[in-house]
Amino acid sequence: MPNAQRQNSALYKLNRPTNQLTAQQQSIQEQVIQFCLANANAKQATFLIQGAAGTGKSVLLSNLFKTLQTLARKTPTSPLYGCQNYLLVNHPEMLKLYKSGVTPSSVLLKKDFQRPTTFINQAAKNQQSVDIVLVDEAHLLLTKPDPYNHFKQNNQLDEIQRHSRITILVFDEQQVLKVKSYWQQQQLTQRINLIPHQTAQLTQQFRIQAHSSIENWIQAFHHQQVLALPHDPHFEFKVFADANDLYQAIRFKNQTSGLARMLATYDFPATLNDGHDHFVETPTFKLRWDRYQPTAKTYWAEREDSIDEVGSVYTIQGFDLNYAGIIIGPSVTYDPQNDCLVIHPEYYEDQAAFAGASHLADPIAAKHRIILNSLYVLMSRARNGLYLYAIDPALQTKLLSL
User: Fold this and answer.
1) Is residue 207 part of a domain?
2) What value does the mean pLDDT take over residues 69-80?
3) Which domain holds residue 156?
4) Are 261 and 283 in contact (CB under 8 A)?
5) Which of 152, 218, 293, 326 has its CA at 20 to 30 Å from residue 203's CA atom?
6) What pTM value is reported for the model?
7) Taking Cα atoms as reference points, which of 79, 77, 95 lies closest to residue 87?
8) How many CB atoms lie within 10 A of CB 129?
9) Does residue 88 sit in the same domain as residue 216?
10) Taken in order 308, 310, 316, 319, is the CA torsion positive or negative?
11) Residues 62, 25 contacting (CB under 8 angstroms)
12) Does the structure show a pLDDT above 90 at 206?
């Protein structure tokens, strides 16, 4: 595969060789291996890996799992030889990506990768306990029963720990997108503080190929602040007055650089699996939401036809783009008097994301956090350029003034 194509391949990024991990990633991988060896006979232990979007969490976890499976299946001298290990991920597109990396010569098997509910239900049915379970996107684990996803217990992390001796979690509180998986740092630490545990933090930004001012701007926006637009010669940060002009710019970038796609906040009607197309619309722009294709072999942004679609937060979470064109819908507005973003949960079309919020201590704050988290996920996808258009006139005026 030519180098340019490899850089645009999600599979290549996920299957990066160990010698291409950073010193920080290699150090954390070694810490996890040593933790597993030290707790090889423990009843329960947890290693927590944290990091913001784009810090290489999934890359590290993929490499780590391959190393553990090599020890478990190919290294008779290792104390971990014969261990039964699994990697779990809730995101169906990420699960597809992990499984696509399995080859006949690999130490990995497709059955090693499962969704959390599948693993939990099978383990409960068979009264089974395994050795090591790695969980990617642990912030997506359910914190309450969810009949739609066939989860009847109260908390997926509790159930995973019940059926594994060592649990390795990758977690980012800023990427929680639903009340039914509403994690806060305190909830997580309470669950691991009473057992042998260790934590590590990934800090180096890999996705956003720019000065830290770009990431700082996105983080500030996530906290409802609109800062002066940063300038970096290596990163294109643009605000468009017309959504169709933005789309044409994304199409051009897709032709010249690849992996350029349209994204939008979940502020436009959509119904999953109803057999109909649904559209993201502005006065000058109309494009269908991404079509759900569970049998597609490649992930959404690598399909040629997805340039004619708009991806949602659920489509793109966990993946990279070279250029992201984002339409910010009416749930996010701007207050000129107080110079801050204002969040309107009533305009958020994914009302299912708020199911169960009334049982939380502060339902409104939770809804605001979910919308802001979804915006953060969208904005943190781009490696080389971020293009914005806002539906709210006040926010659009503010962005253009920057």
Assistant:
1) no
2) 96
3) 3-202
4) no
5) 326
6) 0.86
7) 95
8) 12
9) no
10) positive
11) no
12) no
